[in-house]
Amino acid sequence: MTTYSDASGAIMPLPKARRATGFGGVVPALAFVAIFFVVPVVVLLLRSVLEPVPGLGNYAQLIGSATYLKIFANTFIVSGFVTVISLLTGFPVAWSLAIMPGRLTSVIFAILLLSMWTNLLARTYAWMVLLQRTGLINKMLMGMGLIDQPLALVNNLTGVTIGMTYIMLPFIILPLYGVIKKIDPSTLQAAALCGANRWQCLTRVLLPLAMPGMAAGALMVFVMSLGYFVTPSLLGGTANMMLAELIAQFVQSLVNWGMGGAAALVLLVVTLSLYAVQLRFFGSQNPGGR
């Protein structure tokens, strides 16, 4: 038994430390998750199969309608393009940040964070000004002689892809930077000493080691793109509607919670499936090869 001496010199035993047993310590966290995440999803599921009449009619209508299928296709195509472009653009930026001097890296990070902290609505309106027929981008292209007529870059999926790629880039650069920064530079030096050229060092050494970060960043960008509302609504218009806009229209304009819940749950199932695939193939890998 551990003891201690009090002010009078008497030897007193130390009280035994109490240890939390069972699930008492996690009850508040579980209650928070249940109230704010599980219960709303369950309510949404119930409304999707109970309104306006009980059954799977809402899901059948979503799958059987060519209009809704086109909206699903728009959502997945744009999200896929945004993910691929963000990955191709973000990887060189993350690699450059990893090998830059510390002071220059801090400046670039400040620019990235500033873009993330700027109001999303303001950034989207800025892209509307830049991409319109009389905007700066069309004027520059025409001034350089690359085009004769202004390009249609807004109110279509092209504008949505451009605007969303700009918004999503920081979310793929940051995880990639964290993974690439942890890769030991001597690994690439060893590959070069063994006769690997630059392309082989990139494809056989750097990319496999950075794959967990690439997968995590790509999944984050793709899932966020699936549920984005503001940018597709402003840059795409009603003729190029995406799933988040459809859900908002069901709930706000048509007050059809059944169809809105069905569309939302389809999106949730797709998101969870992609997350499960990412965990299956990359969840056990240690970023940076360590």
Automatic annotation (TrEMBL):
Gene3D superfamilies: MetI-like
Segments passing through the bilayer: 21-46, 71-95, 107-131, 151-177, 205-230, 250-277
Gene Ontology biological process terms from the UniProt entry: transmembrane transport
UniProt-listed CDD domains: TM_PBP2
Location(s), subcellular: Cell membrane
Domain of life of the native organism: Bacteria
PANTHER family per the UniProt record, alphabetical: ABC TRANSPORTER PERMEASE PROTEIN (PTHR42929:SF5), INNER MEMBRANE ABC TRANSPORTER PERMEASE PROTEIN YDCU-RELATED-RELATED (PTHR42929)
Listed name of the protein: Putative spermidine/putrescine transport system permease protein
Organism in which the protein naturally occurs: Rhizobium aethiopicum
